[in-house]
RNA sequence: GGUCCGGUAGCUCAGUUGGAUAGAGCAGCAGCCUUCUAAGCUGCGGGUCAGGCGUUCGAGUCGCCUCCGGAUCACCA
């Protein structure tokens, strides 16, 4: 990397000039800001060196620049502004970079996977209701982070932990049974997850009616809840399920199958997948052995009512329950068990949990307990905590019907893509299938980019009006740039213009801006991986697309008369297309050849 | 109340270990298609980086305090 080269040569230069060895941390090398690009490509801040140079900032920069020219064949010239040394890189360096990579299909994403796997858990839905906007953010993040980690050279295992048991599933089952309609996805034509979700809502309604009657008859709210027959029936059903009552199990597995079939459709459309799916019904009993182990080693303790706890007050947290007084496990117990299970299954380098920030405390405690229990891999648990998705009218509330359904959302985005495309009238020669495919790519591209461009940690606002805007900092803008480049490349191919041979003797500023952006793609992948942040990739791709569009606008490519320049511009264009395609793929976004 | 996260232009968001004059997009205004795709490009206006104090040659970025918003602190998951 050129930044590292400059940095290490600068250390050498300081040694030669002032006889002092300075740490790399003292030498900040950065891209020169646009105002001073006429002087150089990269800048070095010399203020930290004044103590050792005992000279003015300008003089220090000048001496360092001269020494760098001697030491660094890649340095062509330099300029000094105040305490900034601006270094111009020789054209041959960029020529070599473009020549080496312009036809490399997997530029930037071709790191060979090595090491133990990184296990990424994401999605993790409940089977009592369909996927909504919040899940969409989760799924897109999990998938994208997995792609980015892979590209950066990690082995990745994507896992899903489906919450397929518990009182909430029993509620759907009970409502379905009580309705007596025997409604199925086949009989109703409803998507399975929607159908089951409807019964969950129905249960809620029936429950409210029952409660209202009880309260009207003079009971307090608490008394009414306690007296609710429906709730009692649901609890009874859960007990039956845990006792493996055949009839209950059958109903449970039938309805879950419906949900899975529905989820599969949504997952497939969203473009996400998993290497392994865990089901809580099979793992919810795990973790108790770990609790026993913790009791033996004295890390956990039992209270008089025989419930089991861990005392984390020394860590600034509270006491946390791990086993109820009746000996049953809680969420934390299960998660300890599934973490161990995953450690056994994968022998992972690290465990990543893509889970909303409302569970920050849970994961902090989970990690701490496992560390106290001496699990070496616990140090590598990372909670990829993301913020909530809010709507302009506030939070999504299923009870108030303000939940944005994942399938509906995709439908709307694709319909919008269709409307926009038809209005622009550029694809008259597409057949119906090609057109449908384009609407899908653009609609989903808009949705995915809109969500992934914001820093995962932050809460985000999902404004439907903004999300369907396809101009500016959007997925379709980047897709458009790609299609535009491909159009040029097709023309070049038709005219049998090759671009293997060119010499770079001079560079237009728009050319060098673009080349340097392209050069930074591999390190951007690494950084996005290190930060678990698709937003970094999204932001990079937007800047790149913008750089390309100004380049495209200011310089002609095919009409350039100088053959060498024409070839260079085609090579840059080709590499830009590759980077956009590879980068978008890291976000789970496809790019169209034409649009 | 304790802990954690956030507060940057009217709105939505960037701002890599502290570095040059804090940037985009949207919205508004004004231009650019006889030229490789105008889903594009160019220009204009718009800021007490919530506020204060401190560290530093240098702070949106680090530390402390205050204010505002959110999450969490269940024998729920």
What does this structure look like?
This protein is of the alpha/beta class and 595 residues long. It folds into three domains: 2-89, Gyrase A, domain 2, CATH 3.30.1360; 122-390, Rossmann fold; 409-586, Isoleucyl-tRNA Synthetase, Domain 1 (Orthogonal Bundle). The protein is built from 23 helices and 14 strands. It has a five-stranded parallel sheet with strand order 7-6-5-11-12, sandwiched between helices. Strands 1-2-4-3 form a four-stranded antiparallel sheet. Strands 8-9-10 form a three-stranded antiparallel sheet. Helix 5 (133-151) links the parallel strand 5 (114-121) and strand 6. The radius of gyration is 30 Å and the shape is globular. The structure holds one RNA strand of 77 nucleotides.
Task: Provide a concise account of the structure shown.
With 595 residues, the protein is α/β, with parallel strands linked by helices.
Count all strands and give the number. 14
Residue windows where pLDDT falls under 50 for at least 5 positions:
none
- Give the integer mean of the pLDDT values: 93
End-to-end distance, in Å?
35 Å
* Major sheet attributes: 5 strands, parallel
Q: Residue share in helices?
A: 40-55%
Per CATH, the class of the largest domain reads Alpha Beta
Give the amount of beta strand, in percent. 5-15%
How many distinct helices?
23
Spatially, the strands of the biggest sheet line up as 7-6-5-11-12
- Estimate nothing, just give the exact number of structural domains: 3
How would you classify the helix and strand content by structural class?
alpha/beta
* CATH superfamily descriptor of the largest domain: HUPs
Rg from Cα: 30 Å
Shape, please? globular
Quote the CATH topology of the largest domain: Rossmann fold
For the record, the CATH architecture of the largest domain stands as: 3-Layer(aba) Sandwich
